[in-house]
Amino acid sequence: MVASDRAQLVLAFGRIGLVPEVGTNWALTRRVGHRKAFELFVRGGTVAADEALALGLVNQVVRHEGLLDAALAWCDRIARLPEHVVSMTKPLMRAAADMSWQHAILAEEFAEPMTFTTAAHRRAVDALLAKTERAVEQ
Question: What pTM was estimated for this model as a whole?
Answer without folding.
Answer: 0.74
